[in-house]
Amino acid sequence: MQQSEFGYIPFLVMLLLASGLLTLWVDTRLYRHAKQRREGKYAFVLGCVNVGLALLVWAGNWALVQLRS
Q1: C-beta atoms surrounding 53 within 10 Å
Q2: What is the mean pLDDT of the chain?
Q3: pLDDT tens, 45-66?
């Protein structure tokens, strides 16, 4: 991973990405097998939000590092 402006940014990106992917992979399957459609939709949306936030934070940090150098 690249140099970051703040020391916790790489950890935050990995945490958001891991939790989002695990939510998409595990929770949506569990809810689908349990035939809980509403909960499955919420798990899917929240997983996508986590992955999106990870990408947004990573891109923001990249842009900030590019501007500073």
Answers
A1: 16
A2: 91
A3: 999 999 999 999 999 989 988 8
Do the Cβ atoms of 56 and 9 come closer than 8 Å?
no
| Helix 37-68 and helix 9-22, axial crossing angle in degrees, nearest 10 | 160
Long-range CB pairs of 55-62, under 8 A, 24+ apart, other chains included: 57/9, 57/12, 57/13, 57/16, 58/9, 58/13, 61/2, 61/4, 61/5, 61/6, 61/9, 61/13, 62/2
How open is the CA angle 26-51-59, to the nearest 5 degrees? 160
Which pTM does this prediction carry?
0.84
d(CA 28, CA 50): 14
Where exactly are the structural domains of the chain?
Answer: 9-68
